[in-house]
Amino acid sequence: MIFINEEKRIFNLRTENTEYVFGLDNENLIRHIYWGNKINNENDFEMDVLCEVSTNDPVYEITPEEYPVFGGLRYSENCLKVTFDDKTRDIVYKYDGYEVDGDLLVIKLKDVYYNFTINLNYKVMEKYDLIERFVTITNESDQSIVIEEVYSGQLHIPYENLTFRNTHGHWGAEQQMFKQNVSYGKITIENRKGVSGHNNNPYFILDKNATETSGEVFYGALRMSGNFKGVIEQTPYGETLVQMGINPYDFQFTLNPKESFTTPPLLCGYTDKGFEKMSHNLHNFAKENLLREGLRPVLYNSWEATEFNVTCEEQIKLAREAKKIGTELFVVDDGWFGQRNSIHNGLGDWYVNKEKFPKGLNPLIEEVKSLGMKFGIWVEPEMVNPLSKLYIDNPDWIYHFKTRERTTSRGQYVLNITKKEVKEFIYNMLDNLLSNYDIDYIKWDVNRPICEGGATNLGENERKMAFDHIQAVYDIVKELKKKHKNVLFEACASGGGRIDLGILGIFDDFWTSDNTDAYDRLFIQHTYSHIYPIKAMRAWVTDCPNFLSQRNIPLRFRFHSAMMGTLGIGGNILKWSDEDMKLAKDMVEEYKSIREIVQEGDFFRLENTSTNNYHLFEYTKDNEALLFAFLPQTQIGHRPVRVKLRNLDEKGMYEYKINGETMVKSGSYLMNYGVNIHLRGDYQSEIIRFDRR
Ligand code: DGJ
Mean pLDDT for the chain? Predict the structure, then answer.
């Protein structure tokens, strides 16, 4: 709901439980007033007159502006920086009215001198307690304007000493959560690599002593892949501010006369009910608005089994084994095309390798289909190897500088897909692949960052490559999906390097990490779940010792860990024993019976109250709940854990089995007293199902 007090010039955005309020102040600045629990009385809000602390603390510095621009007596972080044609660099905006269109409020600002407008957009997502902020700038003049910085928004939190959370990490160790006390000085999180990274992730979580189920949390996630930046700053004036949007690093572009530019949306929310509620709001938004319907299939992927040594014969053997354990989708990974025998060749030459597939792909696809499975294939369309025919024929198609040596990484260059002909080539290549073969799933990989992208097709002084690159990826996939409606796309970037809310929905699945160690995955998945929905979290069961950790973990624990997301099998099942195959079959069958709850239910990170190192998670949907309990290593063998479940019907009676015994307890008992779990030994795990009678 949007309430506007015309007289006081105050705007009030109300969601189911929260309120976000701002208005026009006596200096004609758009000033933030309130973000917190719903107050329900829009007329209570006032716009106080702000006075400067001293001449050294100008009013522009202390005013919590919704969208501070570069100019005047502003020295802290700003959201918009431009150079007008006559080299004037300051923006001086005035309020130019508002528009409401359903749940969208647009605050119109206009430069007092230049024909340049800034529309601050606020979309109220009532049901999810979220507000989406984005900005549209328009050059209404006849001269061009250079844009150096344009963030999606600034947020104000009326506290000091908050705790900030985000991820650090690298390949094979994505989604490592860090938390940091916010004090004076700035915290910057960003990505500069062109594609999204394994390091920081485009979101912020700021809390005031919150737990999973209590405490205030302010959070936001950017709907963009690639180069983002977030700045978190505790100001000297008693608040914490956050800015997030396109990274101004190596960024600049010209807004030509009559052109507009819209920033990626920043989805933000508040709750006083802890991290759990934050995750549910974001998950529900993603599930209901971004993700396509339908349960995700159990897949088999051949990468860890064969790496580049893909052959038709062996893939058929793998497919037959995969079918035996109940796999529904068979995905051939890297190595099926061009002269792809290692990282050094093949990318760009998207024809089927004749030595590996003498009769083409069809014998494999036909076999997979006759086994009743879907078929998927790996591609890395944004890349090219220097030895490929594509590169030899089109050396100008990559990002490069004419006078500089071109930099390879993983033996490959990045195609400049902002060029029309390159973008068309990629679209056509994929369209042909999907039209010529019966393919249901594309795993789209990207295995290096972008560099030497300075001069793109935009013009010599333009620096918008990273932004335009990812838009081109989005365009290609959106276009392909119009024609090939049922094909699912998995976003992979050397593991989990492309996990963000920009790509989610355009792509359907995230490859979460190349780290398939079932123990490490508990942490990766835990952090992932703060922002991103479980349904998009691909998790494979692979071989032991794990290629990264060299750790041996029992197959049952490996399955349970992977069953926390969308299950895949990625080991060399040709080498699995009969006993392992039997267990795998049972596990896949069990997963199928619970996957609706896992993929579409509500997810809970439960508290471990034991000194023993339990990892506890719950999923609920309608009348059912699942408890996943893991004990990687016994520390104090005799310590059980009493787990209090969440989100059950207090009065409902739930039946569950524990240690072979069937129990029936009320929801209220299970949520307040809890259930005693006692795992013994190392790498022990259980999934317990609670059915409401
Ligand atoms: C990186 C991915 O994360 C892996 O799963 C695999 O597809 C390789 N690339 C293939 O080169």
Answer: 96
Is the confidence at residue 638, as pLDDT, over 80? no
583's enclosing H/E stretch is helix 578-600
pTM recorded for the entire structure: 0.97
Which tens digits make up the pLDDT trace of 57-84? 888 889 999 999 999 999 989 999 999 9
Cis peptide before 545 (omega within 30 of 0): yes
| 563-601 per-position pLDDT tens digit | 999 999 999 999 999 999 999 999 999 999 999 999 999
Helices 420-436, 465-483: inter-axial angle, 10-degree rounding: 30
Report the catalytic residues.
445, 514
Long-range Cβ contacts of 110-116 (<8 Å, 24+ apart): 113/88, 114/84, 114/88, 114/141, 114/145, 115/139, 115/140, 115/141, 116/82, 116/84, 116/91, 116/140, 116/141, 116/145
CA distances from 411 to 1, 400, 480 (A): 53, 15, 28
Query: Exposed, middle or buried, 253 (CB in 10 Å: 0-12/13-18/19+)?
Result: buried
Q: Which residues pair with 208 in a beta bridge?
A: 216
Question: Which has the closest alpha carbon to 111: 87, 133, 138, 85?
Answer: 138
- What is the position in ligand 1's atom list of the atom closest to the CA of 333? 7
Distance 531 CA to ligand 1 centre (A): 24
At residue 60, the 3 state secondary structure works out as helix
Provide the percentage of residues in the chain whose pLDDT is more than 70: 99
Q: What pLDDT score was predicted for residue 460?
A: 64
Q: What does the alpha-carbon distance between residue 129 and residue 173 come to, in Å, rounded to a whole number?
A: 32
Place of tokens 């024929």: 393
Share of the chain above pLDDT 90, in %: 93
- What gap in Å lies between CA 20 and CA 14, rounded to an integer? 6
The pLDDT value recorded for residue 458 is 60
Q: What number does the ligand 1 atom closest to the CA of 443 have? A: 7
Q: Find tokens 């499975």 and name the residue.
A: 373
Is it the case that residue 637 has pLDDT exceeding 80? no
Tell me which DSSP letter residue 480 carries.
H
DSSP structure class, residue 415: B
CA distance 251 to 110: 23
Instruction: Provide DSSP, 496-559.
Output: BTT-STTTBTTB-EEE--S---HHHHHHHHHHHHHHS-GGGEEEEE--SS-TTT-----HHHHH
Query: What pLDDT does residue 462 have?
Result: 82
Helices (H), 409-494: 420-436, 465-483
**Helix, strand, or coil here: 628?**
strand
Residues framing ligand 1 (Cβ under 6 A): 303, 333-334, 378, 445, 447, 492, 494-495, 511, 514
Query: Distance (Å, rounded) from C-alpha 2 to C-alpha 12?
Result: 6
Out of 198, 301, 304, 445, mutate this one to test ligand 1's pocket (max ligand atoms within 8 Å of CB): namely: 445
- pLDDT over threshold 70, residue 117: yes
- Has residue 205 got a pLDDT over 60? yes
Confidence (pLDDT) at 51: 78
How many whole angstroms from 445 Cα to the centroid of ligand 1? Answer: 7
In this structure, how many other beta carbons lie within 10 angstroms of the beta carbon of residue 337? Answer: 24
